[in-house]
Amino acid sequence: MTQSSTPDYARAKTVGLADIPVIDLAGTDSPAGRAAVAAALVKAASEIGFFYVSGHGVSAQLCADAMAASRRFFELPEA
Predict the structure, then answer these.
(1) Spatial CB neighbours of 44, under 8 Å, sequence gap ≥ 6
(2) What is the pTM of this model?
(3) Per-domain boundaries in the chain
(4) 16, 43, 19, 41: which is closest to 28 by C-alpha?
(5) pLDDT digits (tens, 9 = 90+) for 5-26
(6) What DSSP string describes the chain?
């Protein structure tokens, strides 16, 4: 099977947590800032597949509440 016909998941690589990019949304108040963030998102999504987002303005409490709700959901028994 040639590389061009190899499924994407077969070419996946392992990365450490430190290798996952952090993308800061704080600079999106200008066209140039939005373009830079968009380029960083495309690069992170296509090269790593994951990214962290900072500068989003969501409170730490809301993030903690969402994580707690997610944990409760996934602890539910299967139907």
Answers:
(1) 20, 21, 23, 50, 51
(2) 0.65
(3) 20-74
(4) 41
(5) 777 666 667 888 898 999 999 9
(6) --GGGS-GGGG-----GGGS-EEEGGGTTSHHHHHHHHHHHHHHHHHTS--EEES----HHHHHHHHHHHHHHHTSPP-
